[in-house]
Amino acid sequence: MTEQEIDEATVIVAQMGVEPYLKAMGMNVNVIISGRTYDPVPTAAFGIKKSFDPGLCWHMGKIMECGALCAAPAGKSILGYLREDCFILEPLDLQQKCTPTSVAAHTLYEKSHPWLLPGPGRYLDLSNCTFEQYDDIRVKVSGSKFIPSQQYALKLEGAKRVGYRTIFIAGIRDPIAIQHIDDILKGVEEIVVEYFSNMPKDSYQMIFHVYGIKMG
C-alpha cells in the first residue's frame, strides 16, 4: 500500500466469540493463538467446554478478564471456581479480598446497561444476580442468566489514521508574561497560521491548556 492508501484505510476487526475456541479445544490442542477476541471469551470458553452453565461462564469471564480489579484493594491475579449454580472469586494476593460490593461494582464496569451485557451470539441478564461473601476473602456469585441472541452478531472495532499530534510543554515565571498570557497565545496562533499558510486552517487544530496560573 502507498502512504496515502495507508492514511485513508480503515481497519475493521471483529471480536470473535467462543465458537472458534471450542472447535480448537475439540482438537485437543495445547495452545490456542487467536485473533482479536471478545475479552471474556478465553475464560468463558473453557467453562462452556466443560458443560458449566454458560451464564456463569460468561459472567465470570467478564470479571476475570481484568484480573483482580474486582478485589479491594484492586490487584492483578485472581482465581475463579465454577460450580453448577455459582462461581467463586478469590484474589491471590493475601493483602486483598473480594467483597460483594467490589465484585458487583466491577460487574458494572465497561457496560452500556446496568444488568444487560451483550456479546457474540448472546447477552447476559444479570438482573437476578446475587453477590455473597463466601469466606473472609472470597465472593460467591449466582443468578447470571445466558440468553441466546435471535441473530448472531459480532462487535466490530475500527481504526483510521486521522493525523498526528505534537505536544509542547512550557513553563513561565515572568509575572508580566503571565498577566498577558491570552494575548501571547493569540499571537502564537497567528504566527503558526501564517507559517503554515499552505495548509487549510480547518485541517488542523491548536489547543492550549494553560496550567498553574497564580496572580499577585
Concise structural overview:
This protein has 216 residues and is α+β, with helices and mostly antiparallel strands.
Task: Describe the model.
By secondary structure, the protein is an alpha+beta fold. Helix content is about 30%, strand content about 20%. The protein is built from seven helices and eleven strands. The strands form four sheets. Strands 3-4-9-8 form a four-stranded antiparallel beta sheet, covered by helices on one side. A three-stranded antiparallel beta sheet has the order 6-7-10, covered by helices on one side. The protein is elongated and about 70 Å long. The mean pLDDT is about 90.
Strand arrangement within the widest β-sheet reads 3-4-9-8
Model regions low in confidence, pLDDT < 50 over at least 5 residues = none
Structural class: alpha+beta
Task: Give the percentage of residues in beta strands.
Answer: 15-25%
What distance separates the N and C termini? Answer: 57 Å
Output the keywords.
4-stranded antiparallel sheet; alpha+beta; 11 strands; elongated; 216 residues; 7 helices; 28% helix; 3-stranded antiparallel sheet
Any chance you could write out the topology, listing elements then pairs?
Elements: H1 3-8, E1 10-15, H2 19-25, H3 41-49, H4 54-64, E2 71-72, E3 78-82, E4 87-91, E5 97-98, H5 100-107, E6 116-119, E7 122-125, E8 130-133, E9 139-142, E10 145-148, E11 155-160, H6 175-179, H7 181-195
Antiparallel strand pairs: 1-11, 2-5, 3-4, 4-9, 6-7, 7-10, 8-9
Helix pairs in contact: 2-3, 3-4
